[in-house]
Amino acid sequence: MYAERKQQAMEHGNHNLISASDRNEISEFRTIAHYVEAEKLRGRPLGAVGKYSVRRKFPLPRTIWDGEETSYCFKEKSRSVLRDWYSHNPYPSPREKRDLAEATGLTTTQVSNWFKNRRQRDRAAEHKE
């Protein structure tokens, strides 16, 4: 598999051998492994705070982290794309949602939920005024 990836990278002039999807998979696997280890040490399942502590204690190495901080699980770059789109069209079509999902690295469901939540927050803010 490595030789195949290396060949693909060379053909495309890209020397970064780990794709974004592989990087996400590796980082998720690594994080879950740290959760399991911490649960064994503590003798109980981790809650949200425990998981946060583990992520802070074991940050991802530069080889599998793209360097961008996440906020509410979405990277700022992704949120920026969604906000820009929302300012022009708060009701994207299913095709547009698929395109946005591809552009942001999110799932179509995440994109749909982001728009739904944003519209709800805007409506709630209007009622407060």
Automatic annotation (TrEMBL):
GO BP terms in the entry: Bolwig's organ morphogenesis; circadian rhythm; compound eye morphogenesis; entrainment of circadian clock; glial cell migration; insect visual primordium formation; positive regulation of transcription by RNA polymerase II; ring gland development
DNA-binding region(s), residue ranges: 67-126
Domain Homeobox: residue ranges: 65-125
Keywords recorded for this protein, A-Z: Developmental protein, DNA-binding, Homeobox, Nucleus
GO molecular function: DNA-binding transcription factor activity, RNA polymerase II-specific; RNA polymerase II cis-regulatory region sequence-specific DNA binding; transcription coactivator binding; transcription corepressor binding
Top-rank taxon: Eukaryota
Record-linked SUPFAM superfamilies: Homeodomain-like
Cellular localisation: Nucleus
One Gene Ontology cellular component annotation held by this UniProt entry: nucleus
InterPro entries registered for this protein in UniProt: HD, Homeobox_CS, Homeodomain-like_sf, SIX1_SD
Family: Belongs to the SIX/Sine oculis homeobox family.
The protein's name: GD10477
Organism for this UniProt entry: Drosophila simulans (Fruit fly)
Lineage, opening ranks: Eukaryota, Metazoa, Ecdysozoa, Arthropoda, Hexapoda
The gene coding this protein: Dsim\GD10477
